[in-house]
Amino acid sequence: MPSVSPPIRKGFFTDTTVCIGCKACEVACKEWNQLPDDGFVFTGMSYDNTATLGASTWRHVAFVERPVAFGNQVTPDGQFSWLMMSDVCKHCQRAGCLENCPTGAIVRTEFDTVYVQPDICNGCGYCVAGCPFGVIDRRDDDGRAWKCTLCYDRLKGDMEPACAKACPTDSIQFGDLLELRRRAEERVAQLHQRGLRDAYLYGVDEENQPGTGGLNAFFLLVDRPEVYNLPPDPVAPAKRAREAWLSMAASAAAMAAAAVAAVLSSGRARR
Predict the structure, then answer these.
(1) Domain that holds residue 193
(2) 259: in domain
(3) Entry pTM
(4) Which of 2, 19, 67, 222 has its CA 20 to 30 A from that of 172?
């Protein structure tokens, strides 16, 4: 009987310390996937004109202004710094969108990525509620859910995803997940040696982020997750299903006990 080789686990490692905010990844993603524009609306939120991930924005470069210095960065008053991060779908190991999908439209591919099949999606929106990162969303024109595919079509052709290919600083690194984790740990150690002790990995594995089982698109950050608009402790909703059922059972038992007590009390009062 022929042996079955294990799946090739692919993903992204995003090193935010070398992101320059050029938005080449956003443009490349739009061009390759033929995504519609976002209305060209000036948000007024710093230089961030896309604001958030959505059904037609699968890569979003966040510009975070902080009233504190960053490493050896020199500014006129010494109390200002930029943090930049190219955000994307995390392709979670415990994917809330996949677990919530009732039609089987969302599947895990042979590359261990999470993919929405648009021809099967019925636009129910359960996946939107299931994503702890607020990544997946529905388009207004067709009602179906859309998100990053990790360039599934390019992966099948043994090509690098468009965003990583376009990144001029290698802030977005694509490859084998185990190799990316090794590189990421080496990078953190390197930054610590240089004095940047705040550097750490977000979502690198299940131990690091038990609520999602670890992310196939993880990040190197230098501030709290909330600063980057990331949840500090994301959890796939289905992971809490047992707790929810136990809470509901306890509530039902308490209500039943209260009802019985009320009936007994009423009977004594009549006597």
Answers:
(1) 10-235
(2) yes
(3) 0.85
(4) 67
CATH label of the domain that carries residue 99: 3.30.70.20
Pair 213, 140 in one domain: yes
- Please give the chain's pLDDT, 271 residues, in tens: 455 555 689 999 999 999 999 999 999 999 999 999 887 778 887 778 888 999 999 999 999 988 887 766 666 666 788 899 999 999 999 999 999 999 999 999 999 999 999 999 999 999 999 999 999 999 999 999 999 999 999 999 999 999 999 999 999 999 999 999 999 999 999 999 999 999 999 999 999 999 999 999 999 999 999 999 999 999 999 876 555 544 555 666 667 667 676 666 766 666 6
Three-state SS annotation for the chain = CCCCCCCCCEEEEEEHHHCCCCCHHHHHHHHHHCCCCCCCCCCCCCCCCCCCCCCCCCEEEEEEEECCCCCCCCCCCCCCEEEEEEEECCCECCCHHHHHCCCCCEEECCCCCEEECCCCCCCCCHHHHHCCCCCCEECCCCCCEECCCCCHHHHHCCCCCHHHHHCCCCCEEEEEHHHHHHHHHHHHHHHHHCCCCCCEEECCCCCCCCCCCCECEEEEECCCHHHHCCCCCCCCHHHHHHHHHHHHHHHHHHHHHHHHHHHHHHHHHHC
